[in-house]
Design brief:
3 helices; 68 residues; mainly alpha
């Protein structure tokens, strides 16, 4: 019985560990994803690419501001 509980506990911990790794590496969108053909993109991807581009422009504008 102890052996069965040990095996079940090890299997449970292994599955939780694999799930956590998969979630951590699920992936945020990259610039490479936005370079694909716009005809193939769905609306969600287009919106995410537009937001990423706007954020990048805002960061560039912030860098160019003169410091006082």
């Amino acid at each position: 019985m102890k052996k069965l509980v040990s095996i079940l506990m090890a299997a449970f911990l292994a599955s939780v560990s694999v799930g956590a790794m998969a979630a951590a590496h699920g992936g945020a969108m990259k610039d490479v994803d936005c370079k694909m053909d716009e005809k193939k993109m769905d609306d969600k991807t287009k919106a995410a690419c537009k937001k990423m581009a706007d954020d990048k422009k805002a960061a560039d504008m912030k860098k160019e501001e003169p410091k006082k």
